[in-house]
Model the fold of this input.
Amino acid sequence: MPNLAQQRIRPEALLRDAAADPRVIGFAGGLPSVDRFPRTALAAAFRRSIERRDVPALQYAWPEGFGPLRQRIAERMAARGAKVQAADVIVTSGAQQAITIATQLVLRPGTSIGVDPETYPSALDAFRTFGSIPTVGTRARVLYRMPVVSNPRGVGMTSAQRSQALTGRRWVIEDDAYCDLRFAGPAPPPLLATARDRVLYVGTFSKTLGPGLRLGFLIVPPTLQARALRRKADDDLQANSLSQALVEDYLTHHDFEAFAKGLRHHYAQRAERLMRAVRRQLPSWSFEEPEGGFGLWIRTDRRADETRFLQRAVRAGVSFDPGTSFQCERPRGGPTCLRLCFSSVREDAIDEGTRRLARAWRTVAGVGVG
Done:
């Protein structure tokens, strides 16, 4: 049995300490690569926005967001097959606010929402905070799905799974955070394109232009639009004007699709490097090759104390995301799972980070590795 000192250790505290320590190779967090932020272009966008005579970047705006930015978003959605107008788009303070508003629109406390066995932890937190109950399966009245690239698995839904999600008259919250980072190329049509009257679509620029902009967007069925705008206004009145101005200017002066293509190539290379390293250093571990996104979902070869493993790993100079934070139903048995993010690790540090992780696993699991 762990002693009281061990019981008080929280994974969140370990991960915060690891993130602040430059000696730790961070496979945790799901952060985009700082090397890929379009800083020069955004700096130019900032200057142009600030020099505008009416300076909307520093002024109040309407809850739904800047009209020109909403038009740009609508055009991108239309290019993917979704019949969306600028008036349908609500600009939000990141995708998380969009998820929260969507939750408040279609869920009631005490009701269930159907999720994948492993999914985005902050969405699970939002559902639980609201009083709803995340459950695995498709029988719930509301579903939460990431159809193009899921988190943490990094894979898309099959045609059959997409069809199943849209059966019946239920609501679907579609989280498309990684749609621009599908390694094989541009994303397929969103579920929104098929069921405009039942899908609440969540998008974001955090995975591409930068999470510090805190800029996402929400598209809801027309019957929910007025309530969604009321929720948005009550939450924070409006999304950040400066961020909206920067992103709108960037989309006006630059080819976002070409930029996203470069990101896909960059992250695909990182993913391949990490997969090779895991296969070499930890051959008993298994994973499904990601189709996009930021990380690998790992299934180890045995059960081990997750927190103790993370503690050992951080001491060894490497971090990872514990699997239970992504799991809707905490497993009572079976092997330990974890997410390893390749997105923000220097490519030349991936091999060393994997070696450190293997040493930590050997200590905790009590077996030879590799």
In short: Residues 1-7 have pLDDT under 50 and may be disordered. The chain has two domains: 4-37+258-365, 39-253. The chain is about 40% helix and 15% strand.
